What does this fold into?
Amino acid sequence: MIRPVFTELALFLAPFIAYAIFLWATRAGVLHPKSWPLGRIAWLLMAALVLMIGSFVVLAQWGGAPPGSTYIPAHWEDGTFVPGQTK
It folds into this structure.
């Protein structure tokens, strides 16, 4: 469960980190308030949301178990732990 959360967090932060790297590479003040105008932040926020929504769609479409599969929960069998699986 933690991996999808970190994936979404990374996708959300990616445009802001890319812009900060751009500012650093062009020797502009990364922490200077004039380098982060409200309009630019709005565009970065929209790009971040598009990346997140796109990843939700991709995960919903191609992630998970195939249709019609049966989930077998984790259990103990002959003294050994058998993790959950789909068949």
